[in-house]
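Bench log. Compound arrived from synthesis this morning; before running ITC I wanted a structural hypothesis for how manganese (II) ion sits in the protein. Inputs:
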Amino acid sequence: MIIVLKPGAGQAEIDHILQRIAELGLKAHLSRGEQRTIIGVIGDESKLQSEPLQAIPGVEQVLPILKPFKLASRDLKREDTVVQVGRVRIGGGSLAMIAGPCAVESFEILDQIAVRVKAAGANILRGGAFKPRTSPYSFQGLGEQGLKILRDVGRKHDMPVVTEVMDPRQVELVDRYADMFQIGARNMQNFDLLKEVGQTRKPVLLKRGMSASVKDLLMSAEYILSEGNPWVVLCERGVRSFEESTRNMLDLSAVPNVKGQSHLPIIVDPSHATGRPDLIPAMARAAVAAGADGVHIEVHSCPEKALSDGPQALLPDQYAAVMRDLRRLAEVMGKSLA
Ligand code: PEP
Ligand code: MN
């Protein structure tokens, strides 16, 4: 349910409405827009049916939110949400350029990569310390040691860092080192994990599951928001299809599709979507042209020796070439690249 307030509604009226909602055992979510203040009411809406909310002073209109996701919905909040990671703003016209290796392998290797991606214009450094590998015999990540390396290299180059958290029991540990949590495609519907990161106030990069619909993705974001953490950035990273020549099928329509339905920022990961360095530059350009709030690309200084996802990594020079194009495109799109 959305309660739209009259343009001149004052604080006393707002407080009164919030109190009524709390008395009914429902959660209120206040959203002050430039034009209007609206209150989202989440919970068992049948409790509201006997309440003549329309009669409360300051209330202009009471509307149902028809979508199954409420807090993530643009019906509740018209303005784009801008998520701040360190000094980097994501959304509302500012682009996140996330780059780095699939996995943190050593200080030296990450350091070499960070210098290059930063010089090319990346503003957030990525690297996995806990890796969700298809095979239990593949490199699983350096764990806490990897987190320390990531934090130290990020600090050295003055870049905020994002890294994957795979289990609710890791949230506290990862929280100590990272500026942003990543929830990977395989965990998009790990609801306990979503609730756990929802309990923090740290930004979350939520990647679309490989067989998840856009609605499923937004419902997963809703889990995080409903716990009180509003800082969610969505990521389209391709879905499974019958096509065998690419790793996944990049659903670029997800970008305007999400933007029409939600105020949350959405970025694109052409690395995991295509799995092919020859396709990444074109898909990165297409992502920015489609209105994405950023691009997430895996880069390695020596892809043939990478311990994870080497074949899809761009070399630093290739990344720099992509970034030159993205900068020009960003200008055309009226976006800024912090
Ligand atoms: C990754 O970012 O390295 C990763 C494993 O991504 P995804 O969850 O999208 O497969
Ligand atoms: Mn990877």
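What the model suggests: The CA atoms of residues 22 and 28 lie 7 Å apart. Residues 83-333 form a domain with the TIM Barrel fold (CATH 3.20.20.70).
ITC booked for Thursday regardless.
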